[in-house]
Specification:
Layout lengths: L2 H13 L2 H8 L3 H15 L4 E4 L2 E4 L1 H28 L5 E6 L1 H6 L1 H11 L4 E6 L2 H9 L5 E5 L9 E8 L2 E5 L22 E3 L4 H12 L8 E3 L2 H9 L5 E4 L4 H6 L3 E2 L10 E7 L6 H15 L1 H12 L1
Parallel strand pairs: 3-4, 3-5, 8-9
Antiparallel strand pairs: 1-2, 5-12, 6-12, 7-10, 7-11
Helix pairs in contact: 1-2, 1-3, 1-4, 2-3, 6-11
Family: Belongs to the LysR transcriptional regulatory family.
InterPro entries: LysR_HTH_N, LysR_subst-bd, WH-like_DNA-bd_sf, WH_DNA-bd_sf
GO molecular function, one term: transcription cis-regulatory region binding
Length: 310
């Protein structure tokens, strides 16, 4: 099978759109269409079918897409290994962090890595944890940091290292809970909480914890972004249970107050995962060596940065 034809098919499969694929590949639309038809004739199977104005992959198309991901991931590994033989500081790293770690941990990691390995190209994505797991399974990443317990890691993936976050209740200094020594967990059902969307892993953890204590949550409203939640709380709109990573600077400055909650101990695990059968390039291994001590001292590292900012 011609690899260039397979590369063209993969772009069409990713975008599910022939015209956009042709534009990204700098090819004419008829040329892309002809390539797909040639592949279909070669394997005697239909790869695409039309549903109204859009195209979708057939079962054969989905199978070929998965293998194409693996083939080109292996091709990138080969190129990285050959590059490393020429220049140990060259190569590329493809990684993804979940949204909280991507905002509050990743900049520190990248800054330290770039200082030591300026020639390495980084391809970084900020995704939800389920999206990262799927991208790892599809051979699209070298590794990804996800909010997940090691026991929930898919069989094809390997947990390289882990750290713990902490979920804490925060309010503004003017909020009615700001002077409370320890808040009864039942108070969290009073409609004061600003919550993330229902699909959020963090929201799921909070709801499960409250359910265990017979507390039914009534949220004030929901937002899809941690920073938006934080700004709302700082403005005195309501309270939030949020990642301790995300609020260290505001706690140091007195812009937010941490309110302990009785019987509530939420410490989600952050796991750095990769495919067990994927060979990491020297560049990817170097990135792991920079990331490892930062993850090992995760929350302490962020607190230290907050103190430096003061």
């Amino acid at each position: 099978m011609n690899l260039q034809n397979l590369r063209i098919f993969l772009k069409v499969a990713e975008l599910e759109h022939v015209t956009r694929a042709s534009e990204e590949l700098h090819l004419s639309q008829p040329a892309v269409t002809k390539t797909i038809q040639s592949l279909e004739q070669e394997i005697h199977l239909k790869l695409l079918e039309r549903q109204g104005r859009r195209i979708v992959l057939t079962h054969a198309g989905r199978v070929l897409k998965e293998y194409a991901f693996q083939i080109f991931a292996l091709e990138r590994e080969m190129e990285d290994e050959l590059t490393a033989l020429r220049d140990v500081e060259g190569g590329e790293v493809r990684l993804a962090f979940n949204r909280t770690a991507g905002v509050y941990l990743l900049p520190l990691v990248v800054s330290r890595f770039r200082a030591r390995y300026p020639q390495v190209t980084l391809h970084i994505s900020i995704l939800n944890s389920p999206e990262i797991v799927q991208a790892l399974l599809n051979w699209q990443l070298d590794f990804g940091l996800v909010e997940s317990e090691s026991s929930l890691c898919p069989a094809e993936l390997y947990v390289e290292m882990t750290t713990r976050d902490e979920l804490i209740l925060v309010v503004s200094p003017t909020h009615k809970w700001s002077k409370v020594q320890v808040l009864p967990i039942a108070a969290l059902g009073q409609g004061e909480l600003i919550m993330r969307e229902e699909e959020s892993v963090i929201r799921g953890m909070i709801e499960q914890a409250l359910d265990r204590h017979g507390v039914r949550m009534h949220s004030l409203f929901t937002l899809t972004d941690n920073e938006a939640v934080k700004q709302m709380v700082m403005s005195g709109v309501g309270a939030a249970i949020i990642s301790a990573f995300s609020v260290q600077r505001e706690l140091m400055r007195g812009e937010l107050v941490h309110v302990p909650v009785s019987n509530l101990d939420l410490r989600p695990r952050l796991s750095l995962m990769r495919r067990e059968d994927k060979l990491l390039s020297p560049a990817a291994r170097a990135f792991c060596s920079v990331l490892s001590p930062i993850l090992e001292h995760g929350l302490e590292t962020i607190r230290g940065l907050a103190l430096e900012g003061e």
